[in-house]
Amino acid sequence: MQPVNTYASAQARELYSYLLGISGEKMITGQHDYLESPDELSNKVQKISQVYVGVHGYEMGAISGQSAATEAAQRKNVVDSAIRWSRSGGIVTMTFHEALPGRPLTWANVQAKVSQAEFNKYVTPGTTQYNLLIADLDKVAASLKQLRDAGVPVLWRPYHEMNGDWFWWGNKTNFNQLWNIMYDRFTNTHQLNNLLWVWSPNAPNSYTVPYTPKYPGDDKVDILAVDIYNNDFKQSHYEGLLGLAGGKPIAIGEHGEMPSSEVLQAQPKWVYSMTWGKMMTEDNTTDQIQEYMNNPRSLTRDDVKAGLAAIQQPTDT
Q1: What is the CATH number of domain 10-311?
Q2: Per-domain residue ranges of the chain
Q3: DSSP codes of every residue in the chain
Q4: Would you say residue 238 has pLDDT above 60?
């Protein structure tokens, strides 16, 4: 199985091969950090457990009312951290809480209520709204190009939890059009061949719709992830995603509570999981953090570094 982008970089292919290889055997630990402080919480995990997570989560969306200049400076800090992280042997994943294009960079505008008719304008070429969307995408692509040029593969996880209605892109009948616009822009216009595309719905529960209607298709997704909160590690969430994946890797895109040993044993195909931000200590005790990081199934940054080194292709001389 290969990445969906035919022109995926050597580093992206190696990472994908590695993830496929550990499926069913091991799971990489992960921790998300915020745009404003891209190393704070991953360092905190290390202080608590004495080891670094294997997957470092980063944010590309500004949500605190930043100016465009501040957003750019913060993204530069994220890029610099991600390059350091990758060179230390770890895996980079990135989330994009995009404010509704054209609006101020606030959390309220990430959660803007947008009707289906209004959403349609953002995915219709030629409209003012579409042009605002493209401008947004081109700005974030500039940061991703810096990672590409530094040889950093990225687990790119945009427009997550699209099967719920709390983000402006959520629960739209034609969500796939938005995904396809970004995929085309990043892959064909910007040649962001360092990206592996991670589709990450919320766990299907009483306030979401099922996975399948929001799935962009096997030709636009490399990894299928699911966001799980409130210890909702139902076997049906796992098996439903596994069935949809058809052999592609599956992961837990976000969680508050860390999956227990029992969960990891019952659901062995997760290739990584990522604790979301401050929930690391808000939703987990020190003992739980240490158990998650030191579980026999868990992989740390040093483990990932060794695993990737073992499959890297020799360079031509």
Answers
A1: 3.20.20.80
A2: 10-311
A3: ---SSTT--HHHHHHHHHHHHHTTT-EE-EEE-BTTBTTHHHHHHHHHHSS-BSEEEEE----EEE-HHHHHHHHHHHHHHHHHHHHTT-EEEEEE-PPPTTS-EEHHHHS----HHHHHHHTSTTSHHHHHHHHHHHHHHHHHHHHHHTT--EEEEES-STTSSSSTTTT-TTHHHHHHHHHHIIIIIS--TTEEEEE-PBP--TTS--SGGG---TTT-SEEEEEE-TT---HHHHHHHHHHHTTS-EEEEEESSPPPHHHHHH-TTEEEEEE-TTHHHHS--HHHHHHHHH-TTEEBHHHHHHHHHHHPPPPP-
A4: yes
